[in-house]
Amino acid sequence: MKKSSPDTRKGAIVLGGHIQSLGIVRILGRRGIPVIVIDAAARCIARRSRYCRAFYRITNEDLPGFLKGEACRSRYDGWALFPTNDFHVRILSSNRKELSRHYKVGTDSAEVIDLFYNKINTYRLAERTGIPFPLTFFPDREADLDDPAIPFPCILKPAVMYDFYRKAGRKVFLCRDKEELRAAYDKALKIIPASEIIIQEVIPGDGTTQFSACFLYAGGRSYVRLTACRMRQHPLDFGNATTYAEVSDEPEPAALAERLLSAASYNGLCEVEFKKDPRDGVFKLLEVNPRTWKWHVIAEKAGTPFIPLWFDHLNGVEIGPVPGYNKASFCHAATDIPVRLALLFRGAGYWNRKVPPVQDAVWSPDDPAPWFFEKIYLPYFIISR
């Protein structure tokens, strides 16, 4: 554990240690705000940042007890908590009342979070709000797979992603016919209950049809927002990580997302994902991530200060809306290079596209250590993931 000396200023506790976390550490650290990192893995790059004051390796199972424990509470009383994955969000929201006695919890209430943590709730809210989403089925039993309205190809995915992805190693099962759908259903039942299984149509289109509307949203209004096209991802189809994204002028994703966030009475940082259906030109909701997202550091080039303004808001500082944003892009070179090569072989014209200025995910001349450690850890990441 990296030791740190006591600091009278209140800081931030970042849960998680990969790229998302590194971005938060740097953004706040460069503004003189002390930051520590907690992660379940020792091989994490955020702990290697010069702006990380301390690192604690705590398992997911022990995280709630650690945060509630006297050692953490006494040392970091009044600090802000920043989650970086769905598990952290769930832990903070379900323990929000108790944790709020000692920390500034950057996660909404459990009731609100459950609207987005569980995608069945998300789609039902979208339906009530008039937000388009892909043709979706919620089978109660195996016999429901015979529904003639289910199109092929389709995907089978979980209502709650975190445990499913950790056990299945993928976000969805692609099903090209009824036989594959039944096989996928049987696999899913070994991981999640039938009540959490979702079947959804596959919307055609490549990376140029994938969009996200991102917000700092609080008290029924948007303070910071940005829309981007998540052009390249890994894996190429149904990816779990964006490798390249660029700012977009499309107005509709943000308008639809704000309606959804307003209906949920949401407060916090979030990413709302859409896909533009080339068959009808409609943006259709995929999911909502009620936290920071992997490529949030694009804000440094786009002029959208999501992280520092949310930190100020959590600390009782009055904030005002940020008008607009600048053209910029994000690239994670370590994962984008193989994706670009795969797209080149597919003949995709956007395989090498980059819109300046480009925000690199890891490399930074004022903080080079995480870049070098990422290269050291890369073989481990490839094998373990």
Q: Give helix % range.
A: 25-40%
Q: What string gives the helices and strands in order? A: EHEEHHEHHEHHEEHEHEEEEHEEHHEHEH
The main pleated sheet reads as: 7 strands, mixed
β-strand amount: 15-25%
Question: What's this entry about, in short?
Answer:
This protein has 14 helices and 16 strands. The chain is of the alpha/beta class.
Strand and helix map with partners:
Layout: E1 12-15, H1 19-29, E2 35-39, E3 52-57, H2 63-68, H3 70-75, E4 80-83, H4 86-94, H5 96-99, E5 104-105, H6 110-117, H7 119-129, E6 136-137, E7 154-158, H8 161-168, E8 173-175, H9 178-189, E9 197-201, E10 210-218, E11 221-234, E12 241-247, H10 252-264, E13 268-277, E14 282-289, H11 299-302, H12 306-314, E15 329-331, H13 333-346, E16 358-360, H14 369-384
Parallel strand pairs: 1-2, 1-4, 2-3, 4-5, 15-16
Antiparallel strand pairs: 6-9, 7-8, 7-9, 10-11, 10-13, 11-12, 12-15, 13-14
Helix pairs in contact: 4-6, 6-7
Account of the 3D structure:
With 385 residues, the protein is α/β, with parallel strands linked by helices. It folds into 3 domains: 12-110, NAD(P)-binding Rossmann-like Domain (Rossmann fold); 135-201, Dna Ligase, domain 1; 207-354, ATP-grasp fold, B domain (D-amino Acid Aminotransferase, Chain A, domain 1, 2-Layer Sandwich), CATH 3.30.470. 34% of the residues lie in helices and 23% in strands. It has helices at 19-29, 63-68, 70-75, 86-94, 96-99, 110-117, 119-129, 161-168, 178-189, 252-264, 299-302, 306-314, 333-346, 369-384, and strands at residues 12-15, 35-39, 52-57, 80-83, 104-105, 136-137, 154-158, 173-175, 197-201, 210-218, 221-234, 241-247, 268-277, 282-289, 329-331, 358-360. Strands 14-13-10-11-12-15-16 form a 7-stranded mixed sheet. Strands 3-2-1-4-5 form a 5-stranded parallel sheet. A 4-stranded antiparallel sheet has the order 6-9-7-8, covered by helices on one side. Helix 4 runs antiparallel to helix 6 and helix 6 (110-117) crosses helix 7 (119-129). The longest helix has 16 residues, at 369-384. It is globular, with a radius of gyration of 20 Å. The two termini are 25 Å apart. The model is unreliable at 1-8 (pLDDT under 50).
